[in-house]
Specification:
This protein has 102 residues and is of the alpha+beta class. It folds into two domains: 1-67, no CATH class; 71-102, no CATH class. Helices cover 31% and strands 24% of the residues. This is Reverse transcriptase. InterPro entries: Lp2179-like_sf. It comes from Rotaria magnacalcarata.
């Protein structure tokens, strides 16, 4: 990400962005986690409603464009999160580029 000051600025910027997400959307009783500019959240409404929320969020600031994946199993940082009948389970995730070295 660059210098430590860049990291601080990214955290401040994303903190303000996530406050706006929570303010504008009805995402109570859901899980939301963020590490710098990587975000993970759970959603119990329809996939179409989630896509609307994410599309709206993509229009809030010209420098923020969300790339998202929707599914029952997703990698987040070095963890593979899997929804098994409403329960989140975790396992270690190895990025494909790291496979030859693990």
């Amino acid at each position: 990400m660059g210098s430590s000051f860049t990291l601080t600025l990214a955290n401040i910027f994303m903190w303000k962005w996530q406050k706006e997400l929570v303010r504008r959307q009805d995402i109570t009783c859901e899980y939301y986690g963020r590490y710098i500019d990587d975000v993970f959240m759970t959603w119990n409404k329809s996939e179409n409603e989630l896509k609307k929320v994410l599309e709206n969020a993509n229009n809030w600031h010209p420098n923020i464009k969300l790339e998202y994946k929707i599914g029952k199993s997703l990698p987040f940082l070095d963890i593979l999160l899997t929804n098994i009948n409403g329960t989140l389970s975790t396992s270690v995730y190895h990025k494909p580029a790291a496979e030859p070295y693990v």
